[in-house]
User: Which sequence fits this backbone?
C-alpha cells in the first residue's frame, strides 16, 4: 500500500520555490542534487541542536517521535484532550494537508505554534516585513512555512484560537554559561535517523539567559492571508495556492512553473554519467516542455551562465536563451555609467567578453600582461598565500559569545621566495571540542606573517571579513594581548562596511580573486571566479604547470606538510586536466564534497568553497566519534586547506611565467 500523498510543510516550501519540483521530488527516476544526507545538512546549519535547545525552554513536553502518519496523529490528538499540554513534533491533518509542528503549547482553547529555525535575528533592530506589511525576501520562506502550519491547525481545530511564533537564534544575546553547545550531541542511528543526546543539566537555570527568541508573527501572517494575489505567477491567494498544490500533489499531476534565471540552480539537473545510469533531468524536461529545447540546445552556452548579470529573465521572456543570441549592447545598462578609473576589466567588460568568446567559439584565455605587470611590481618578497576555514555556530561554545559569531578553526600558509622556491610553510588547526579558537588562531597567524614585510594574498573577501570579526571579539575581550593583536590585524586588513572605524593597513592583503576579475578570463570557467573553477582552467591552459606538476615534485622538491611525491596533473579521456580537488578523498564517504560546499551558513555574498570543511568541523564538535575517525577527518581538513593555498600559488606561478615570457619577447622584438 502506498503512503498517502499529503502536502507537508516541506513539500509546500518546495512548491513555493518552483511548483514543478512538486512533481519531481521524491521520485527515484529524477536525480535530486540537493544533499540527500539530511544528517550532514542539518549538522552544517545547527538545526538539530537548536531544535533540542528550544524544547528545553518549554520543559515538561511530550515528544511525538513516531514517523508514520496515523500513529503520530493518534498520539497528538489524545494529548490535546488534556486541558494544558506541551507537545514536541505534534502532528496535524486537514484533508490532504499534514504538518509536524516543532513545539505547540495548548492552554484550554488556545494553541501556540512555535516553528524553530537555525537562523539568526537581531531582536533589537531587525524587521521581517517591507512597508506594505508583506514579508521581505529574506524572511518570506520562513513566514510562509509557519503561515502554512497555522492554516492547517486552524482548519483542523476551528474552535481554537491559534497563534504563531518563529523561534530563532538571537544575535544580540550573549551566552551566560560555558559549554552550552556541548550539551547537545548529535547521533545518527543505523537507519539514518538523527537524534540529539542531551548531556548534563539542561533546566532553565543551567541554560542561562535564553539565546533563542520567540517572535510573534500573527500580524504578518494575516497580511499574507489577505493578499488576493499572493502568487504572481498564478495571481492566486496564499490559501488558494495551498489548495492548488495539495490537489496537484495528491493526484501526482505536473504543475509547470515559469522558467526564470533561478532555474540555473535547479537541483533536478543531471550530468552525462547520471543519464547513463538511467536518471532523468527534471531541468531538461522543463525546457523541452516549455520551449521545445533539443538535446543539442543543452550543449550551447546559456544566458543563465552569464557572470554577475541580473537581466537574464528579460532575455528569457524575449526567447533569447543562448549567449550567441546576444550582442554587447544587450548587456549595457540603460543609463550610461562612467568607466571605472581603476585599471583592468569592469564587470561589463567581462560579461561582453564572455558572450563574445562564446559566439565566436573562442576558447583562448585572456590575460592582460601589461596591467598585471604593473600590479606585480608592487609586490614584495617573500610572497605569502593564506586561506582560512571558518564556521559560525548557532549555539555558542563559550560564555560571553553570541549565536553565529565567526569561528576561525584552521589556516594554511604557502610562501614563494624571491628565488622562486615554494614551500608549504605552516598550518594551524583546532579540533578540540568546545574550545573557542579565534585568539590562538590569530596569535599563530601573527607569528607566521610577522617575520618579514612580504605581500600577503587571500582569495576573495573572506579572510579580511574574518580578521575584522576577530578584531571586534578581541576588543570586547579581556585578553592581555588584545590591543597588540588588534593593531597587528589592522596592518594586514582593511575595515569592512559595518566597522566602527575606518582603516587600511600598510600591508593590506591582496585579493587574488579581484586580480582574476580584472586581468584574467578563461572560457573554461564558464563565468565563475571560484578558485575551484579557476584552478582547472589555469592548469588546462598552462604547458608550464602541466610539465612541472605532472612530476612528483610536490612533497619532494617543494616542501609540503601533508603530501609526499604528489603528482597533481592527471588527465581524463579527452586529455583535459582533472581538477586536483578531485584527487583528494571525500571528507565524508559517499558524500560529494561539491555538494557539501553549498551548505553554507554565512550570509556574506562572496566566493567560498569551504562548506565541506565547515561540516567536518561541526561533526567533530557536535557528534560522538572514535579517535580514529577524528584523526582521519583532521588529516582530510589539512589536505584540503593546503590545496587551497597551493591553488593560489599555481595561479601566481602561471601568471608570473607569462609575464616573464612577455618581458623576454619585448626585449627581442
Assistant:
Amino acid at each position: 500500500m502506498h503512503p498517502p500523498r499529503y502536502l507537508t510543510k516541506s513539500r509546500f516550501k518546495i512548491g513555493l520555490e518552483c511548483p514543478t519540483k512538486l512533481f519531481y521530488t521524491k521520485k527515484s527516476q529524477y536525480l535530486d542534487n540537493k544533499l540527500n544526507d539530511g544528517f550532514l545538512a542539518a549538522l552544517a546549519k545547527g538545526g538539530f541542536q537548536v531544535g533540542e535547545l528550544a524544547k528545553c525552554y518549554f520543559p515538561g513536553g511530550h515528544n511525538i517521535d513516531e514517523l508514520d502518519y496515523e500513529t503520530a496523529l493518534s498520539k497528538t490528538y489524545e494529548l490535546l484532550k488534556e486541558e494544558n499540554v506541551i507537545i514536541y513534533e505534534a502532528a496535524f491533518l486537514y484533508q490532504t494537508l499534514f504538518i509536524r509542528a516543532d513545539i505547540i503549547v495548548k492552554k484550554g482553547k488556545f494553541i501556540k505554534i512555535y516553528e524553530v529555525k537555525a537562523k539568526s535575528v537581531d531582536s533589537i533592530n531587525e524587521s521581517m516585513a517591507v512597508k506594505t506589511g508583506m514579508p521581505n525576501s529574506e524572511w518570506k520562506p520562513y513566514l510562509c512555512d509557519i503561515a502554512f502550519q497555522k492554516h492547517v491547525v486552524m482548519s483542523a481545530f476551528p474552535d481554537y484560537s491559534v497563534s504563531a511564533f518563529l523561534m530563532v537564534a538571537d544575535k544580540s544575546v550573549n551566552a551566560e554559561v560555558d559549554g552550552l553547545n556541548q550539551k547537545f550531541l548529535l547521533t545518527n542511528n543505523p537507519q539514518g535517523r538523527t537524534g540529539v543526546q542531551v548531556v548534563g543539566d539542561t533546566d532553565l537555570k543551567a541554560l542561562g539567559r535564553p539565546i533563542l527568541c520567540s517572535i510573534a508573527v500573527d500580524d504578518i501572517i494575516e497580511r499574507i492571508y489577505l493578499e488576493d494575489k499572493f502568487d504572481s505567477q498564478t495571481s492566486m491567494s496564499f490559501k488558494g495556492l495551498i489548495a492548488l498544490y495539495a490537489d496537484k500533489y495528491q493526484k501526482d499531476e505536473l504543475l509547470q512553473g515559469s522558467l526564470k534565471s533561478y532555474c540555473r540552480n535547479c537541483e533536478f539537473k543531471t550530468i552525462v554519467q547520471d543519464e547513463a545510469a538511467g536518471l532523468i533531468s527534471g531541468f531538461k524536461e522543463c525546457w523541452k516542455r516549455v520551449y521545445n529545447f533539443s538535446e543539442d540546445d543543452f550543449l550551447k552556452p546559456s544566458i543563465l551562465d552569464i557572470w554577475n548579470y541580473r537581466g537574464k529573465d528579460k532575455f528569457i521572456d524575449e526567447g533569447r536563451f543562448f549567449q550567441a543570441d546576444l550582442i554587447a549592447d544587450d548587456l549595457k545598462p540603460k543609463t550610461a555609467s562612467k568607466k571605472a578609473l581603476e585599471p583592468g576589466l569592469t564587470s561589463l567588460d567581462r560579461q561582453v567578453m564572455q558572450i563574445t568568446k562564446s559566439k565566436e567559439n573562442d576558447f583562448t584565455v585572456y590575460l592582460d600582461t601589461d596591467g598585471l605587470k604593473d600590479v606585480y611590481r608592487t609586490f614584495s618578497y617573500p610572497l605569502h598565500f593564506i586561506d582560512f576555514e571558518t564556521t559560525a555556530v548557532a549555539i555558542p561554545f563559550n560564555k560571553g559569545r553570541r549565536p553565529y559569531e565567526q569561528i576561525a578553526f584552521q589556516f594554511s600558509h604557502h610562501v614563494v621566495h624571491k628565488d622562486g622556491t615554494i614551500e608549504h610553510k605552516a598550518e594551524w588547526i583546532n579540533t578540540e571540542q568546545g574550545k573557542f579558537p579565534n585568539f590562538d588562531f590569530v596569535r599563530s597567524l601573527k607569528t607566521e606573517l610577522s617575520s618579514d614585510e612580504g605581500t600577503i594574498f587571500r582569495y576573495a573577501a573572506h579572510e579580511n571579513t574574518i580578521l575584522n570579526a576577530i578584531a571586534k571579539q578581541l576588543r570586547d575581550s579581556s585578553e592581555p594581548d588584545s590591543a597588540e593583536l588588534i593593531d597587528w590585524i589592522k596592518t594586514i586588513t582593511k575595515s569592512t562596511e559595518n566597522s566602527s572605524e575606518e582603516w587600511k593597513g600598510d600591508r593590506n592583503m591582496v585579493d587574488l580573486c579581484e586580480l582574476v576579475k580584472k586581468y584574467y578570463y578563461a572560457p573554461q570557467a564558464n563565468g565563475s571566479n571560484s578558485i575551484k573553477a579557476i584552478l582547472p582552467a589555469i592548469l588546462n591552459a598552462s604547458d608550464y604547470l602541466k610539465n612541472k606538476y605532472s612530476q612528483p615534485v610536490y612533497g619532494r622538491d617543494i616542501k609540503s606538510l601533508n603530501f609526499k611525491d604528489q603528482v597533481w596533473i592527471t588527465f581524463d579521456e579527452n586529455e583535459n586536466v582533472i581538477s586536483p580537488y578531485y584527487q583528494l578523498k571525500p571528507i565524508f564517504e559517499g558524500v560529494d564534497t561539491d555538494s557539501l560546499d553549498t551548505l553554507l551558513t554565512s550570509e556574506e555574498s562572496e566566493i567560498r568553497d569551504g562548506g565541506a570543511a565547515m561540516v567536518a568541523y561541526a561533526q567533530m564538535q557536535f557528534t560522538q566519534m572514535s579517535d580514529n575517525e577524528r584523526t582521519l577527518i583532521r588529516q582530510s581538513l589539512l589536505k584540503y586547506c593546503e590545496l587551497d593555498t597551493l591553488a593560489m600559488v599555481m595561479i601566481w606561478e602561471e601568471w608570473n611565467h607569462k609575464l616573464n615570457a612577455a618581458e623576454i619577447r619585448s626585449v627581442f622584438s
Q: What stands out?
A: The first helix runs from residue 9 to 17. The mean pLDDT is 90. The chain has three domains: 37-226, 375-511, 521-668. Residues 324 and 450 are 51 Å apart (CA to CA).
